[in-house]
Amino acid sequence: MSESIAQFAAQIRAGKISPVQQCMQTLHALEAGNKTYTVATHILAERALHQAQVLERKIAAGQDVGPLAGIPFGVKDLFDVAGLVTTAGSTVLQNNPPALKDALVVSRLCAAGALPVATLNMDEFAYGFATENAHFGTTLNPHDVRRLAGGSSGGSAAAVAAGLLPFTLGSDTNGSIRVPASLCGVWGLRPTQGLVPLEGVYPFAASLDVIGPFARSAADIQSVAEVLAGQSFAFEGHAGSIRVGVLGGWFAQDLVPDLQAGLEMIAGACPSARTVTLPEIARVRAASFVITAAEGGNLHLNRLKQTPMAYDPATRDRLLAGALLPAAAVIQAQRIRTWFRHLMHDVFDTVDVLIAPATVGPAPLIDQPTIMVGGKAVSARANLGLFTQPLSLAGMPVVSAPLAPQLTPNTQLPLGIQLIAGPHKENMLLAFAQELERKGLLGFPVAHSQHQRVA
């Protein structure tokens, strides 16, 4: 569809589109698309159709049904969905009791009229950048099924990229929204730390975890994010007056030519743009690694002692390594985190928005184990978060946005950038993103697919 989420929901509220028919169409497309891309872990057909029928009756009765009326969505497999066991992409938790209620953000979306239709594939316990799941399968990139979708929210990004769902929810600890959004050519938002409630979401590293939406446009991201956060992100200023910094140094290395050229074109469209170089980013990234590993390892330590073989071996090894980190390393990492957060606050005294790449290039081939960084072949899966991991420590809002196809003529695959603002500046950040989208600099079409597009 060409309409935005807000426009489509308005047609449903007006009775021009049946939410039941739309839901059935979505479920059919999702069933078919899942066979190709492996995006879903559970399809919630019975619940979705029941909610759609209730919604249709409310519309017929003239009741208010909310700003997301009839819009289908999916959630990463670590969000509680009433009646389902929250498995977090693993079989380790399969014997847990089912969730008694939805995660708070899922409840907010349902109250706004949206219809949950699926839980979506992810790296086990959100520990990875590839969505290669030993239990549920590997999510494939809809733009080229030979390539990774990214992770750990790969199912969420791929479902939007394939045109199967208009929006989805994911989580981001070190880049798990931003990396798959970049590789799949969709929009993603990592909100300000603490803005969106985590109640009913299985943690990875609780002090870094953030949840946010994927969608096909900046306007759609805003429509969903306002419901998640329970507030308006209307911007009263002028997007043209926003002061822009382009991150250099660490963030200007190893980029494919189309990504470098695209960043330069965006900078050229911002009269105030200037280069900003952040110090010590290698240490900041290392600190993010250490905090994540330590918190994740500690969370799983007792279960690792009791049932270690239930884990994917790769996940188990990373969690065990994190649990064994010495306290001195974790304390030093937290000091770096504090220092970096203060540094970023100072940076936003002089600029309003920072621009950086999201990944070094397009999605790696599934059988491609390495990417080039610093002239050396390094593990692709370990380094897809090269540009996202450091920025996580600041806890500030980040939009992942795809470059427009005309900016990537040689690559012909999605390339993503990050737009970063100071804390609780989502309104300005989304206004800036929408301005660049209107100028034709951002936004990538959904993948060409045999499956019918839905809302």
From TrEMBL:
Q: Which Pfam families match?
A: Amidase
Which is one GO molecular function term here?
A: catalytic activity
Domain (Amidase): give its ranges: 26-430
List, alphabetically, the SUPFAM superfamilies matched.
Amidase signature (AS) enzymes
InterPro entries per the UniProt record, alphabetical: Amidase, Amidase_dom, AS_sf, Carboxybiuret_hydro_AtzE
Xref: Gene3D superfamilies: Amidase signature (AS) domain (3.90.1300.10)
Highest taxon of the source?
Bacteria
Q: Which PANTHER family match?
A: GLUTAMYL-TRNA(GLN) AMIDOTRANSFERASE (PTHR11895:SF172), TRANSAMIDASE (PTHR11895)
Could you identify this protein by its name?
Amidase
The scientific name of the source species is Acetobacter orientalis
